[in-house]
Specification:
The complex is a heterodimer of chains A (about 230) and B (about 375). Chain A has about 230 residues and is mostly helical. In chain A, about 65% of the residues lie in helices and about 0% in strands. Helix content of chain B is about 40%, strand content about 10%. In chain B, helix 1 packs antiparallel against helix 5 and helix 2 packs across helix 3 (about 40-50). Classes of the chains: A mainly alpha (about 230), B alpha/beta (about 375). Chains A and B meet through helix 2, helix 3 and helix 8 of A and helix 11 and helix 14 of B.
Chain lengths: ~230, ~375
């Protein structure tokens, strides 16, 4: 176990130096690639349905028994939530079992001097002060920071609060409420949990905007490795 | 003052209630608590044999709506039975004694029934200025609350004031009003939130405690799960309209007249744990949603600061301007989008003006 941890830490340290610039496309992301697109689809469904759940839909007509529109929207939201959660768990498993790059979005080596140097370099690159990309494989340091603070943490928060809110509907004796009910010790009024859950949606939206732009830009500008998990 | 030996039954008979009516009451109570048919005879047995429990009912900062609700309990009927079930030894609102006589009862109960009386608290203590915003019997209310809580068998927090703080604790809370569990920290407090709580919830709780001689099972927030384990939304009779996606859009539209779901009008039913949609009010006549108005969420923590009451999303005031989560999120996403667009524009301009870089890029294998 200790060996494993040490190897992982060593890998995290070694990752930035594993440059393979100009070495063509590196096929090292296969499981992550699969997860990425499942995750992206789930987030798309969750964002759209979540927005409708927050604002309500235009009213349907006829008898209530003839329509289940809001029910289906909520069902889609909950199903996509389960897909995202299971995917996220597998992604955590892969972070521990996969290669050194797989753990990047979960572990930011803030304690390393060269991390900060590479971050500085990356900020200069995005500020048009330099053109040379610093690293060959994996996320650049700026991307890694955004991944960790805007994606990984927000998704974790969304999964926890999402299951807590789901537990309210499933009932106080459901496993969701038993496992995630502690959220309501932090916010006794679940209206607050709804508000935070809703705000976090917009963090994900902001992340998606920057993420898609940066990837497309990198693809066009550098024609380098990481782009497009296509 | 009850002497502590008189049983419930003897009190009830003394008041001229027949044995037949007494058994009717037991059956109704069992039914309203959702208990099995055999429980009615258990309740009857308990009332015939157990001495009445002395109750001290304190009033802090409050509006007395809890008492108003309590005295309207229909099952059990408050006039005939409940005031005899417990020995309500002290209660500002309805006691005959006054002044020093009244205050003497407190000390007497505290000494005589040490660890044997129920302390029911309606309202809450303000803590600012040494508690001077609520003086009761010449002393700050918080002192009275602390001293009576020390020797109590059980402490019941009636209503949202005692449970969560309610309106007097709304921002900016000038008097420093706090729920009683912030003052009495070493004891389990049974919270019965609601502004006011449903009458049958209050009397049902008292019946449960006197009948079974124990506290009811409580949830994470200290609320009895028999009344607070489900949300208004879970038992709402308009729930089918919610699932169908049929919402009221305006107070005076056709949908409102058709009795559609009030979700978009800010109904807090989906986040409110209370028994209104199951028990209803005034003897089961109605409850807010049935009368066409959304739930305000009055039994939830800080419901007064989770407004507006007529919007689904809560207004967030931390940014200086009052916006809800969607408005803030869209604004932030808009700023990010503009930044991205500007960055893309600069990138394009750079690209066009730095031709050497471009040819260098082209030379690289890709």
């Amino acid at each position: 176990m200790q060996d494993r941890a040490q190897k992982l830490l060593a890998a995290v340290d070694a990752a930035p130096t594993a440059r393979r610039r100009g070495g063509g496309v590196a096929y090292i992301y296969a499981p992550v690639r699969l997860w990425h697109w499942v995750n992206a689809a789930a987030i798309l469904v969750l964002s759209l349905t979540g927005y409708f759940i927050g604002t309500g839909t235009p009213a349907t007509w006829g008898k209530a028994s003839g329509s289940f529109l809001f029910g289906y929207i909520r069902f889609a939201h909950f199903s996509a939530g389960y897909v995202l959660s299971v995917g996220f768990l597998l992604r955590i498993y892969w972070a521990l079992m996969g290669n050194a790059n797989a753990i990047q979005i979960f572990c930011v080596p803030l304690w390393r001097g060269c991390f900060w140097w590479e971050l500085y370099h990356e900020i200069r690159r995005y500020a048009f002060l330099t053109v040379e990309p610093e690293r060959g494989l994996g996320h650049n340091r700026l991307a890694q920071l955004a991944m960790f603070f805007m994606f990984t943490q927000t998704i974790t928060f969304m999964v926890v609060t999402g299951f807590a809110l789901y537990g309210q509907g499933a009932g106080t004796d459901s496993w969701q409420y038993k496992v995630f009910g502690w959220v309501f010790s932090l916010w006794p009024n679940s209206q607050d949990v709804h508000t935070w859950h809703h705000l976090s949606l917009w963090v994900i939206v902001m992340f998606a905007l920057v993420h898609i732009y940066a990837v497309l830009r990198d693809d066009i500008m550098s024609r380098r490795s990481f782009p497009s998990m296509k | 003052m009850g002497d502590g030996r008189e049983t419930f039954y003897s009190v009830i008979r003394r008041q001229g209630i027949t044995r037949r009516s007494f058994h009717k009451f037991c059956s109704l109570t069992a039914a309203s608590l959702g208990l099995g048919p055999l429980t009615a005879s258990k309740i009857a047995h308990a009332l015939e044999t157990k001495p009445r429990v002395p109750v001290i009912w304190l009033h802090g900062l409050e509006c007395t709506c809890c008492s108003e609700s309590f005295i309207r309990s229909a099952h059990p009927l408050i006039k005939d039975a409940l005031l005899s079930m417990i020995s309500l030894d002290y209660d500002h609102m309805i006691m005959a004694a006054a002044g020093h006589q009244a205050e003497a009862i407190l000390e007497e109960t505290r000494a005589k029934y040490k660890g044997g009386y129920v302390l029911a608290v309606e309202g809450n203590p303000p803590l600012n200025e040494g508690g001077m915003f609520c003086i009761d019997g010449g002393k700050p209310f918080v002192e009275k609350l602390r001293s009576m809580a020390e020797e109590a068998m059980a402490i019941v927090a009636w209503g949202t004031c005692a449970s969560w703080g309610c309106v007097q604790a709304a921002k900016p809370n000038p008097t420093g009003a706090v729920p009683i569990d912030k003052v009495v920290t070493n004891r389990q407090i049974i919270k019965v939130p609601g502004c006011p709580p449903v009458a049958e919830v209050m009397s049902g709780l008292v019946t449960f405690m006197t009948t079974f001689g124990k506290l009811p099972e409580l949830d994470r927030q200290g609320r009895p799960i028999m009344f607070y384990s489900e949300r208004i939304h879970d038992k709402c009779y308009r729930r089918s309209h919610f699932d169908a996606g049929q919402f009221v859009e305006e107070w005076d539209d056709t949908n409102a007249r058709k009795g559609y779901c009030l979700y978009k009008m800010g109904c807090k039913g989906p986040t409110t744990y209370n028994a209104c949609s199951a028990l209803r009010w005034n003897g089961g006549v109605s409850f807010p949603i049935q009368s066409g108005h959304g739930c305000l969420g009055c039994s939830e923590d800080s419901f007064w600061d989770k407004g507006p009451f007529y919007d689904r999303l809560t207004t967030i005031k931390q940014f200086g301007i009052e916006e809800n989560a969607d408005e803030i999120g869209m604004a932030a996403a808009g700023v990010v989008g503009l930044t991205v667009a500007a960055h893309a524009a600069v990138t394009a301009v750079k690209r066009l003006t730095h031709r050497p870089d471009r040819s260098a890029d082209k030379g690289k294998p890709s």
